[in-house]
Amino acid sequence: MNGTEYESSTPIGDNVFTDDNLSQVVINGVDQGKMVLVSKYPYNGGTRFCIRQQTDEEKLIDTLKSENANLNQQLTDTQVALCDVYEMIAGLM
Length: 93
Known about the structure:
Blueprint: E1 6-8, E2 25-27, E3 30-33, E4 35-43, E5 46-53, H1 56-92
Antiparallel strand pairs: 1-5, 2-3, 4-5
């Protein structure tokens, strides 16, 4: 760590800094929780990058996205069940 930036002596690809990989960050054995990439750039043959904690607003947005995904799945399940009932009723006529 150099100030608020981290340095790697080897290049780090963009695929390392995905939302999934940043969802549970551990630094020096300390769980930091979900973090956000601020910047990343080549430096002395390696990579220098900066990550930060999520803001309360970002945490709220993540929670709302998760709840929305759950509601969408429930809606889809209900629609499938209604189609099954319709097909069953149509088969009786």
